[in-house]
Amino acid sequence: MLRHGPVDAIRIKEPDAGDGEAPAKECPDCHAVIHAAYSVCPECGHEFPPPKREKHEATASSEGILSGKASRSEERVSEVSYHVHHKRDDPDAPPTMRVEYRCGFNTWFREWVCFEHSGYARAKAEQWWRARSREPVPSSVEEAVELAEAGALAPTLAITVERKAGEKYDRVVGHAIGDKPPRLDDPVNVPEYAHADLGIDEEDIPF
Q1: For the residues of 15-41, what is the DSSP string, one character each?
Q2: Domain segments of the chain as ranges
Q3: Core vs surface per residue 122-154: b (16+ CB within 10 A) or e
Q4: What pTM does this model have?
Q5: How many CB atoms are located within 10 Å of the residue 116 CB?
Q6: Which residues contact 160 (CB under 8 A, 6 or more apart)?
Q7: Per DSSP, which regions of 104-139 are E strands?
Q8: Could you report the per-residue pLDDT of 173-207, keeping only the tens digit for each?
């Protein structure tokens, strides 16, 4: 399922044309080059050791069997970064703040906070900010990133990640947050915003 998707929405790659060279290997005894499928060298009778088989995990996967089925996991956060994000295929769309969470050795999860949107998206952004900061809710994404980089937000200790079978990207649906920091003493000294690299490879971002 992890490789091919849920059983009602299987993703199958097109087979290769088969025009490439046949796989081959060299016999360590007589140095004859033979087809890789041979278990015994046809030239000298050397017996090759059996191929190593990949072992499956000790526990079953929680990946959904049918499309739309959701599974959740708790991920401990080791690093958080904040960026101004412009939607690549829609230059007129308002920017969002892209929050990136590093979990484990080098696994990243992302969410988008919509300070410059209106309606429900803006209300969710205000709720997200107030849960983490004593500073007033910023009116722009650039201001939000500046404040975040200046230490205005509480640390994120862990996140809840939801995976839906058949969907390409995971979603951050919950947070374990530390204590809110005190108000910044002098907001004038907030460091200037250093423009983030916007060359993100993801597509179909909701904002």
Answers
A1: PP---SPPPEEE-TTT--EEETT-SB-
A2: 21-53, 70-189
A3: beebeebbeebbebebbeebbbbbbbbbeebbb
A4: 0.59
A5: 19
A6: 72, 73, 74, 75, 172, 173, 174, 175
A7: 107-113
A8: 999 999 999 999 755 555 554 444 444 455 555 65
